[in-house]
Amino acid sequence: MKPRRRTTLLAVGALTAGLLLAAPQSASAANLVKNPGFETAGTDDMPYCWKKSGWGDNDFTFSTVADAHSGSKAMKVELTRRVDGDRKALITESAECAPPVTAGKQYDLALWYKSTTPDTSLTLFRHDTTAGWQYWTDLKTLPISGSWARAEVRTPEVPAGTDRISWGVSVYGTGSVTTDDYTMDQVADPTPDPVCTGTAEECANGRWDVLPTKNPVRSMHSVVLNNGKVLLIAGSGNSEELFKAGTFTSAVYDPSKGTYKQIPTPKDMFCAGHVQLQDGRVLVMSGNKGYPSADGRVGYQGYKDSYIFDPVTETYSKTNDMNDGHWYPSATVLGNGDVISFGGLKEDSTGSVTAERWSDAQQKWLPLWQVNQTWSYWGLYPSMILMQDGRLFYSGSHVFGNNIPGTGSAIYDYDANTTTQVPGLQNKDERDQSASVLLPPAQDQKVLTIGGGNIESNPDGNRLTDIIDLKATSPSYVAGPPLPQGTVDLGNGRVAETGNQGKMYVSAVLLPDGKVLETGGALHNRANPVFESSIFDPATETFDPVAADPEARGYHSSAFLLPDGRVMATGDNPGNGSWNHNVSIYTPPYLLKGARPKITSVIDKEWTYGDTQRITVDRPVAKAQLIRPAAVTHSSDPNQRFVDLPLSVDGDNIDLNVTSNPNLAPPGWYMLFAVDANGVPSVAEWVHLQGPSALAASETASAHVHSFADSLDGAVQQPGKKRTSAKVSPTIAGCDRHYGTANVCVPTAFPAEVKQTTAARCTWLKENDYGRLKVNGKDDPLRLDRNKDGVACGKADIRRR
User: Fold this and answer.
1) Bridge partners of 315?
2) In terms of domains, do 130 and 230 share one?
3) Is the pLDDT of residue 19 over 70?
4) Are 686 and 629 spatial neighbours (Cβ–Cβ below 8 Å)?
5) Of residues 316, 314, 325, the one with CA closest to residue 283
6) Are both 97 and 236 inside the same structural domain?
7) Could you say which of 138, 508, 570, 590 would form a disulfide bridge with 435 (CB–CB 3.0 to 4.6 Å)?
8) What is the pLDDT of residues 462-519, one digit of tens each?
9) For residues 663 and 3, is the Cβ–Cβ distance under 8 A?
10) Domain total for the chain?
11) Which residues form the Galactose oxidase-like Early set domain (predicted)?
12) Among residues 276, 376, 375, 371, which one has the least CA distance to residue 331?
């Protein structure tokens, strides 16, 4: 991971962020840029309506030169020394100069340029009518050009609340850029209103279909492969009987054929970690070494083994061992292709405090002494999301029980080896099996956290959502809109949720139209499925309830995006130990709006950071993006991301501008979608993104990032003393092992509405299909075997007082 640069934004000259802007005029076909060729002089040695801007430690010059593309003047920006930061000539941020824009519209930006450095970018700022001027995005990296070249790019849709924008070219490596003849035009609306191809209900809310062929394995791990198939990993599938028999399974599902192929599986990968490597293979780390003991004194154990699954041969091969066991580990791919992992349970059931790092260059887990250690216990499946400067954001989503101490959310700087608390997460100890996603597009650096509960105390799952903007100088979660409510099965059929009832075991899926589907869930620990789905719109920060999956999707369920734009949902493992083998497919409303655009060709499927890549389409599209394929389990997929690809449009030829920052789009295979103005996506094409980036041309150049998360107010924690592990209760799974087999989960704490009597508890267990429960040992902490015959909830037990 590269050393992180400080990124305090420094305005050179008066960037009039505090001006009260006049109401913008409507856009027209005319060029919206004033003084586009710098022919009219202004102040501060700059042309009229242009200002100097930039940040960081560098030496620079701004000058008006006679070497023009047309007319007599051009603007030159040069860096002669650079430690960090950039310099840019921007349109003045004022009502007089900044072009007016309309929310929801797109604009074609173009300029002529010469450049002696690859470290240049076309950069946008936007004026929010509430928050003022703020960095928006980088749209295009400009290749070196010794003669005049034209650069053109289309903006994303203008966000709500934006009335003006400012833009220009930034230089963030030593060298110079000379620019001239800027243009900005509003894009005409090319697409007619969609025509509904389903029922009115389906076109509004989508449709779920339960497939006729069932999933043959008890899979709780789902990985979308770069050939469009899906790897479904079960291991023992949370079945102690299968574990004792050494029956470990995986399957590969082919969505195009609707078929499954069972795969020999060498180890119990039940509750492992997994992530796609940059070459498309799947790294699977740790898993289940042993189930809890019958007396509850020993909990689950994680082994050190690690494997790679090859989608071509559909086989597993062993890697070197990890330094520790990690049952329920995190897995986050970094900007250089390495993988970092935290948390989980060791071989002796204690909590692992060992951070692990997979080296992409060496294709192995690094020895302990080569990995920075904080000796902190991050818990189970901690959601660690890669930020645009290489730091990691722990969102607060996790599995089992309470959150980490402090605020429950933090930013971890691997290079500095420091952890800084981030405030604002609501009810941090009731975010067990919530879901967190980096919202579309990844360039916006916003994270949404949804729902959750607590397996130990077993309250009702909640409706909480939280949103954080990691571009803020000191980011803090703010409360988002409450989750919509659905129906819940409390044991006697579905009833409407009431009060603050929400759900845990949430699945969240990034969709190619730039929205997020949340689906599935349950009200309590492995019980009471909730039937509710909704689509979150990051632009408006609102939920829109849609059709609900008819199948229960609680513990050990997952949902994920397929390359054809549909969503697949699998699994459910309630406390009685049963398994739902039915598979559901969601057809979102955007697939019921008529014909889909089609990507008719991709010139090159091997992409490099900072590239411009050409595709052809069969009709106009409004946007394109890369979506990293899913690797999801237990509500957790921290690598899920949607990366915007700004467009340059020439009829059916579309040039896509690839980010130059590997931290925004870590190397690997991605699904490429083209989307029309109605939000209808193409079927995805697979492209491979890897280095070197344009930034590599200069040893001192770093990822082109702007001021964000650089003035954190939270408490900073340095590495603690070296230790071997953290103490973890054997009941961390929220299950009382005194009753039934290891895959049966009698809750240590029953839902609050269940009275603390034998009759009430036994009635709840009967309503949730627990069946006959053998008592393990002589202890009966829940008072379910009052006559002490070794069987819980017999008739005599219920009659006794």
Assistant:
1) 310
2) no
3) no
4) no
5) 316
6) no
7) 508
8) 999 999 999 999 999 999 999 999 999 999 899 999 999 999 999 999 999 999 999 9
9) no
10) 4
11) 596-688
12) 276
- Of the three residues 534, 557, 591, the one that is the final residue of a domain is 591
Residues 397 and 488 both lie in one domain: yes
CA dihedral 253, 268, 574, 350 (to 10 degrees): -140
Answer yes or no: are the C-beta atoms of 393 and 413 closer than 8 Å.
no
Question: Would you call the peptide bond into 441 cis, given omega within 30 degrees of 0 as the criterion?
Answer: yes
Please give the distance of CA 365 from its chain centroid, rounded to a whole number. Answer: 24
Q: How confident is the model at residue 296 (pLDDT cuts 50, 70, 90)?
A: confident
Average pLDDT over residues 365-371: 98
**Tokens encoding 412:** 């971890």
What is the DSSP secondary structure assignment for residue 344, as one 8-state letter? -
Record the tokens describing residue 245, joined without a space. Answer: 């028999």
Residues in the chain: 801
Residues 605 and 587 in one domain: no
219 backbone dihedrals φ, ψ, rounded to 5°: -85, 135
Q: Distance between CA atoms of 336 and 340, rounded to whole angstroms? A: 11
Q: Cα 588 vs. chain centroid, distance in angstroms?
A: 19
Task: Output DSSP code: residue 681.
Answer: B
Mean pLDDT estimate for the chain: 92
For residues 412 and 384, is the Cβ–Cβ distance under 8 A?
yes
Written as six digits, the tokens of 233 are 């990993």
Does residue 247 sit in the same domain as residue 129?
Answer: no
On the CB side of 794, CA atoms within 13 Å amount to 12
Alpha carbons 734 and 750: distance in angstroms, whole number: 10
Residue ending a domain, among 544, 563, 591, is 591
Buried b (16+ CB within 10 A) or exposed e, 151-169: bbbbbbbbbeebbbbbbbb
> What is residue 23's predicted lDDT score, i.e. its pLDDT?
32
